[in-house]
Amino acid sequence: MTQAPPEAPPLPTSPEASPGREAGYPEALASLGGLWLGGFVFQAMSESAIPLMAPTTAALLVFLPVVALFALGAFFKDHPLVRFLAGVPFGITALACTSLGALLGTLVIQKPLASIQGEPGFLDRLAISDVFHSYWFGGLVLALMLCLVLSAGRRSRVWNLKNSVFHCTHLGTAIILAGGLFGNLTSQSGMLVLEMGRPEKGLQMEDGSHLDLPSPLTLKAFSVDPAPLEVAMGRGDQGEAKPKRGGRSLPSIEKGKAFKLKGWTITCLEAIPSAEVQSRLLEDPSGVLALDLQLQSHGTQSPLTLLANGEALRFPGGMGLGLMEVPEGHMDNGLAQAKAGMEKDTSLALLFVSDGKHLSALKRKMGGGVDPVADASLKEGISLGPLALSVKRSFRARMDVDYKPASGLRMEPMGAAKVRAEKGQQLKEGWIAAGPMGSEWLVLEGKDVLMLMHPQPKTFESTLSANGQNTRIRVNHPMDHHGWQLTQTSWNVNENGSPVSILRAMKDPSIPVVWVGLLLLMLGTCGALWILPATFKGEAK
Amino acid sequence: MTDAFLLAASGLLMGAGAGLDLLGSFRNRPQWKRMGYGACVLGWILLLTLVAWLWISLGRPPIRTLGETRLLYAAWLPAIAFFADWRWKTRILLTPMAGMALLFILLNLALPEMRQKALMPALQSAWFVPHVVVYMASYAALALSSAVAGVLLIRRHMGKVDDDATLALPTRLLWLGFPMLTAGLVIGAFWAKGAWGHYWTWDPKETWAFLTWAFYLIPLHQRYQRGETHSLWMPLLGFPIVLLCWFGVNYLPTATQSVHTYTN
Q1: Is the pLDDT score of A540 beyond 80?
Q2: How far is B196 from chain A, CA to nearest CA, in Å?
Q3: Does A540 touch chain B (CB under 8 A)?
Q4: Burial label, B67 (beta-carbon count in 10 A; 0-12, 13-18, 19+)
Q5: What average pLDDT does range B235-251 have in this prediction?
Q6: In Å, how far from its chain's centre is CA B204?
Q7: Under a CB-based contact definition with an 8 Å cutoff, are residues B242 and B185 in contact?
């Protein structure tokens, strides 16, 4: 790295080449500002994004000018206009303008212009809501590309190590940009939704249109491999538990596995990555108060059970029904609390209150406010619009929840594990669960609880049949289908419980060009790392 | 021994290293500076041990969450500083490096995360480790460039004159970080092609990666335009952009459109 730097060609702003004042940043700013403004006007007039075109036309439109500009730079390297357009001020200004345009794209929510329905707004007219498909952004990228190609062309007639690095970085970037523009003009992408056993070739494109693949694909099999269930120590408070942060990596659990966690020996008795919840009410003298009700609606009768101090029962329309248990002898206080509660939660239509010996109820009035229900009505029937409710009996019960392995595939599975926790003389056993239906945790000591983390898929994989051949596809392992690259993006479950595989299909003829550009850029930057430190003044001394 | 203990110990050593180096400079005691250097080396070894321990205990590379990337970044800072010290024979880097590493260690201690083993399918790629590791190395080099530029600007403001080699240090570090930044971008493009079908989608995170890359091209080209090797303001201004790209993107209005968000 201490070797003397190779002789470099004259810099673009070398005074020997041009005795007059070189065009600099003001001129660059004026010309690029004009280009941007013109792009806005053109965009507003066209009211659409850059259209797609045939690959041959697009290639001629993009790559032919690149070659021509390179030649122009090589043969007219001292022409003032070429010097200006290939100079650092123009390049930096073009880069700054492109960056500012791109910045807009991260500040304003982006959506395809074609998807806008009705009269487009001001931002839509200027394509600020679709920056990266707009004419003006394309124009700024073209200006940057023009500078890069011309500057590379200007140095093309002197070959040495430093110039090779310059070519790699500048031509590499220009090729990436040219490839990107070519891709913007030609690439197509859409979603392919495959149901089990049904051949499908219709793509739903990003702009809402439809396109057919050359031949259909059939989903033969779909599997989800769940990641091992993990448990965490948590803190449970007021019906909510949150896992504690920090500490060691979370232990994963499987049936029969035992491990130590904060002084507790935890043994996993059962682990179900995708569980079905089975709950039933068991009569239990130590349980909470429950009411058996009879619901009458349009001549039909159906039984209903209400548990004390739990979630209110909700009827279609949101009308709620609740039961509140207060300590014995505190009925008056309980009724006042219940009234205040109903005034707060206006969706509660009826609230039963019991101190274990007496049962009362409060009912919402039609015009607002709350009224006590007469004792006789509790047995004969409380009218609630088209419904009537009567109390059959009161008893004590507890909810017994059990978990069984789910039969089908679940989009958001419920994970469950039966665990035993031991510490000295203390022994705790029960289910812990997490998933779309909420969480269940095991109280260990005080507010310390053992809880399960939400189950996650380790991987998901589709087996596709195309042209008589089976191919497996999963995330990061795409497949090729007649020039379309198919990538596994997501999946779903339809109403029959059958899996639906969601793939992205992409056809982009610019890829080889972009890969060459990226390779050149990498070579160039590594080369620059190698040769450029030697040009520092300090080291040169 | 938990990760918090290792982290706190390395933070303590980094803090001690920065303090000894600073005091050694003010009091002109070379042995204090040497002790500070030693403390930072020990702190760095602890950080590397922690990264290795987490990798083994999690069964996956510890670079999935924001906190894990902060840890890797804190481990890269001394590596880059020691390399620069060895290569360019300068001792100005130790205090800014240790101070910055300490800041990120304290952030991790203040914002502990759960250590989940699961790795989402998109991250199960051969490109995952090189992409994040190279990016964090480049961020570390660019941060040091920024920190040294800041220190030199303060010294200039105080009327102190630094030699050419010292003044060139921010640009040298920038030249060290920029190729790695480019490599991170290129690796990310290859990865995105395999995972999502397109190498570049102008996702907010991708756009900010481009903006960061584009920004650093300005000081690198300024050298030719003005013959400057000692630009201090541009390296200094670059690091806030790096930070915006790293985690500021999550707070942008378009963050919901990004697929590149850290999870915990």
Answers
A1: no
A2: 6
A3: no
A4: buried
A5: 89
A6: 21
A7: no
Q: Which residues of B touch A109 (CB under 8 A)?
A: 253-254, 257
Q: What is the mean pLDDT of residues A211-230?
A: 94
Residue A245 at interface with chain B, using a CB cutoff of 8 Å: yes
Q: How far is B50 from chain A (nearest CA, A)?
A: 11
Q: Alpha-carbon distance A90 to A101, whole Å?
A: 16
How many contacts does A have with B, using Cβ atoms within 8 A? Answer: 177
**Nearest in space to A467 (alpha carbons), one of A251, A201, A282, A237:** A201
Q: What is the CA radius of gyration of chain A?
A: 36
Between β-strands A348-354 and A320-325, what pairing exists: parallel, antiparallel or unpaired?
A: parallel
How far is Cα B242 from Cα B210, in angstroms, rounded to an integer?
11
Residue A444, CA distances (Å) to A238, A239, A264, B56, B104 in order: 16, 15, 9, 29, 35
In tens, the pLDDT along A157-191 reads: 887 888 889 999 999 999 999 999 999 899 999 99
Contact B198 A475 (CB under 8 A): no
pLDDT score of A138 more than 50:
yes
Distance CA(A463)–CA(B1), nearest Å, equals 45
Helix/strand/coil for A93? helix
The partner residue sitting opposite A475, judged by closest CB among B168, B195, B224, is B195
Angle, nearest 10°, between helix axes A135-154 and A55-75? 40
B194 near A CB under 8 A? yes
Determine what percent of chain A is predicted with pLDDT higher than 70.
94
**CA dist A521 to A29, A164, A385, B189, Å?**
27, 11, 75, 13
Q: DSSP state, B203? A: -
- For residue A377, CA distances in Å to A385, A421, B139 come to 15, 49, 74
Angstroms from A65 CA to nearest CA on chain B: 23
Of residues A270, A267, A228, A269, the one with CA closest to residue A249? A228
Among A146-150, A165-169, B17-21, B229-233, the range scoring the smallest mean pLDDT is: B229-233
Confidence of residue A53 (pLDDT cuts 50, 70, 90): confident
> Do the Cβ atoms of B249 and A536 come within 8 Å?
no
Q: What does the alpha-carbon distance between residue A203 and residue A218 come to, in Å, rounded to a whole number?
A: 14
* Intra-chain end-to-end CA distance of chain B, in Å: 23
A13, A457, A533 member nearest B175 (Cβ)? A533
Residues whose CB is less than 8 angstroms from the CB of residue B230 and which lie 6 or more positions away in sequence, other chains included: B164, B167, B168, B170, B171
Q: What is the pLDDT of residue A11?
A: 41
In what helix (H) or strand (E) does residue A172 lie, and over which residues does it extend? helix A161-186
**Which residue, among A22, A148, A244, A476, would best test binding to B if mutated, counting the most B CBs under 10 Å from its CB?**
A476
Q: Which residue has the higher pLDDT, A77 or B76?
A: B76
Name the pairing type of β-strands A200-205 and A240-243. unpaired
- What is the per-residue DSSP string for B8-26? HHHHHHHHHHHHHHHHHHH
Which among B194, B217, B257 has the least Cβ separation from residue A110?
Answer: B257
Counted residue by residue, chain A has a size of 541
For residue A387, the model assigns a pLDDT of 82
Please tell me the distance from the alpha carbon of residue A63 to that of residue A179, in angstroms, as a whole number: 9
Q: What is the pLDDT of residue A16?
A: 42
Nearest CA in chain B to A486: B197
* C-alpha–C-alpha distance, residues A302 and A230, integer Å: 42
Element (H, E) at A282: strand A264-297
On the question of pLDDT at A470 being above 50, the answer is yes
pTM (two decimals): 0.83
Contact between A434 and A454 under an 8 Å Cβ cutoff? The reply is: yes
Q: How many CA atoms lie within 13 A of B114 on its CB side?
A: 19
